Amino acid sequence: MSPTQAPHLVRALHAFDPQMRWRWARHGKHWVIELKMAERQPAWLLERPNPFGQTNRAKDTWEGYKDGYLYVTKMKHPVEYPWAFIAEHLRHLSLEAHQAKDALIARLDAAEAEEEAAVQRKWTTGNEAAAREVFDRMAWDTKRQISTHVAGPNPLRVECEGYVVYDRRAVSAGVA
């Protein structure tokens, strides 16, 4: 004979979600909380247990499935947890909690993408600066003109189309 669940827990579970029920799992000798599912609902079809399972849990899960219920969680007999703890545990197992976690993961992924973009911008800027420096050094070594910024008046300074150009060939030859 199966034990009877405390009436206050049955009422509290029904108030929490009318689609849930307590059931005594006769094979496993513990309480099971199950959720009523529509037969055409995808979760109902995907969560179908093995009807030939040999473990106590498989047998108990199959009994609930035959009645149209899916396993949510189990609790040892007698249930000594306060209802607030059980309700928080059920909220943690709910789809909404997992959707909230998915939203949090999406926000974290977006923040990580922003950070990676900022790092990539720094690398790109650094690479551009290094490439310009290498080009300037190559132009200097081949005695070509390059545009640079030098503070103060310089007699070799020529302004052309918004750029200030210095003839380094004249500087390296010592011509003023």
Features:
176 residues, 6 helices, 6 strands, alpha+beta, rod-shaped, three-stranded antiparallel β-sheet
Could you describe the 3D structure shown?
This protein has 176 residues and is an alpha+beta fold. The chain has a three-stranded antiparallel beta sheet with strand order 1-2-3, with helices on both faces. A three-stranded antiparallel beta sheet has the order 4-6-5. The longest helix is centred in the last third of the chain and has 47 residues. The radius of gyration is 37 Å and the shape is rod-shaped. The model has no long low-confidence stretch (mean pLDDT 81).
Overall pLDDT metric: 81
| DSSP helical segment count | 6
Rounded to the nearest angstrom, the distance between the terminal CA atoms is 112 Å
Class by alpha and beta content: alpha+beta
Q: What share of residues are in beta strands? A: 15-25%
Uncertain residue segments:
none
* Major sheet description: 3 strands, antiparallel
Question: In which range does the helix fraction lie?
Answer: 40-55%
- Per DSSP E runs of 2 or more residues, the count of β-strands stands at 6
Any idea how many domains? 3
The helix/strand order is: HEEHHEHHEEEH
Order of strands, main sheet, comes to 1-2-3
Q: Over all CA atoms, what is the radius of gyration?
A: 37 Å
C-alpha geometry: rod-shaped
